[in-house]
Amino acid sequence: MNVTREVILDLLPVYLSGEGSPDSRALVEDFLKQDPELAQSIRGRWVENMARAVPSTLPPELELKAFRRARRLLFWQRWSMGFAMFFTAMLASNQFTFSHGRLVDFHFLARDFPALFDVAAGLALSCWIAYFALRRGLRTTA
To answer: Could you tell me which residues come within 8 angstroms of residue 127 by beta carbon, excluding any fewer than 6 positions away?
Structure first.
């Protein structure tokens, strides 16, 4: 049977991925013995494919470590967002006093308690910074 180079090139993706049948692999290997130039380029592609496959096959303990790290970061991200929202809401807090259906007095946190307002603003800012830093740490790179 006369096999052309184009047929072998069509079979290369299957051969390089290791999904071909034993007959297809034997056919490609026999042709590569006759064409050393093609064999050299395929070896280069095979090395490239193996180099790309290595990072995806992680040892189980490394996967577990990455999973635990992601869980821990998600835990702290939820808490930092909760505290950030609480302290941000506290900045806008005020107190209204009614007596006999009429507004008697009102207090704004920023005006009446500036030291408490500054503390709440600092805590809100630091919690938001922590939240976005954790969010950035959890981003994946494709």
So the answer is: 80, 81, 83, 84, 87
CA distance 109 to 90: 8
For residue 34, the model assigns a pLDDT of 85
pLDDT at 49: 64
Shared domain for 129 and 85, answered yes or no, is yes
Do residue 81 and residue 129 come from a single domain?
A: yes
pLDDT < 50 positions in the chain:
142
Domain housing 100: 60-138
Element counts in the chain: helices (H) and strands (E): 6, 2
The Cα–Cα gap between 142 and 137 comes to 14
- The amino acid at 26: A
